[in-house]
Structure formats: C-alpha cells, structure tokens
Amino acid sequence: MNRIAIFGGTFNPIHKGHINLCLECNEYFNFDKILLIPTNIPPHKQVKELATNYQRLKMCKLAIKNKPLFEVNDIEMRLSGISYTINTIKEIQNKYPNSQLYLIIGSDMLFMFNRWYEYKEILNRVILIVGARQDNEYQKMIDYVKNELNNNKNVKIIKIKTVEISSTQIRNELKNKVNPSLLDSRVYEYIVKNNIYIS
C-alpha cells in the first residue's frame, strides 16, 4: 500500500521551512509521495498580499524541482471556493483508492484542529502528523490530543528540528530588499522577476 502525504497551505510564498518539515516527517514515515496542495481560499485565516493562484502554483513547482518525492497538486484551486480539507482528502482518496493517506500540519494548526470542518471525519480517513520543535511544545501537543481529540490514535506527534519561519516574515524581508535565506533561489528569482510582494 502506497503512503501518500498531503501538505496544504497558502504557500505565499513557499519556503525551505515547508519543504524541510515534509522531509523530516518522511524520515519517520517513509512516504512514497508528498503532495503539496496550495489552498484556493483558506478557511482558517485571512491572508493579506496573497499572490495569484498561478503564481503560488508556479513557486511550488520551482521549489520542488529535482525533488522527485514531491508533487504539486492544484486540486483545491480546481474545486474553487473555500478549501475545506475534508473535501480535498475525499478527492485524493478517489484518485489513490488503495493508499494510506497522511496529513501534515503545522504546530499552530493543531491547537485549533477540533474547530476544523468535519475534523472527526478527517481523522477517520487519514493519519494526522504534527511536528513539535521543542520539548515543552511536544508535551502541550500530547495533552491537547489527549484532552481535545480523545487521544485519537490517528494523531502522531513527532519531534522535529525545522526552524520556525513564517511566509509573513519572508514577505517583509522581500519588501526591505533582503534576499531571505530560507527561500529557494529559483523561487526568489521568480518573485523578483514578477515583482511579487516587493512593490
């Protein structure tokens, strides 16, 4: 049975922190494929300075060049409307019916997971993977899963080393004419060439 990981986000822009998180998860679970899925309209947050769908897809494709484990999927943009994760999961399951699906989320998303649309159904269909960067964060996550998610066995908390960096920080650096070190060089060149976030 194939192991397919799903990692969604606005990717506005995608950066090395995103890629490294997926790779660290892969060390634990040995995926056959990691699907990067840019959201159409994120349900959990308002995003300012959102690049176009085409631009975000293009940046994701540039970021995974020469990384055969990764694949960019535009399913949420094709579904249009608000990007509810459960709908994405159902579509992916239809496409890969004999696969075990994993859903990778950032640590900040875990603590609101019980407010996600149909979150219990999500946990019925996938294994949820969350990365903890510090020991105290790890323990908070374990407690949250125990108290808020009924100690669901499909939630896996793993310890990771990935540096915490936000796309907001990177956009601010770009505005200040700084080349962010955690931005893939091909993505940076694309941003500069197309004057995204900079003006």
Molecular structure report:
The chain has one domain: 3-Layer(aba) Sandwich (Rossmann fold), CATH 3.40.50.620. 42% of the residues lie in helices and 18% in strands. The chain is built from nine helices and six strands, in the order E-H-E-H-E-H-H-E-H-H-E-H-E-H-H. Strand 2, helix 2 and strand 3 form a beta-alpha-beta unit. It is globular and about 45 Å long.
CATH class: Alpha Beta
Question: Which quaternary structure do these chains form?
Answer: single chain
* Main sheet: strands, sense, barrel: 6 strands, parallel
Q: Give me the side-by-side strand order of the main sheet.
A: 3-2-1-4-5-6
CATH architecture type: 3-Layer(aba) Sandwich
Question: What is the distance, rounded to the nearest whole angstrom, between the alpha carbons of the first and last residues?
Answer: 47 Å
Give the C-alpha Rg: 17 Å
Q: What is the third-level CATH name, the topology?
A: Rossmann fold
Strand content: 15-25%
Task: Write a brief caption for the model.
The protein is of the alpha/beta class and 199 residues long. The chain is built from 9 helices and 6 strands, in the order βαβαβααβααβαβαα.
Give structural attributes.
single chain, 199 residues, 6-stranded parallel sheet, alpha/beta, Rossmann fold
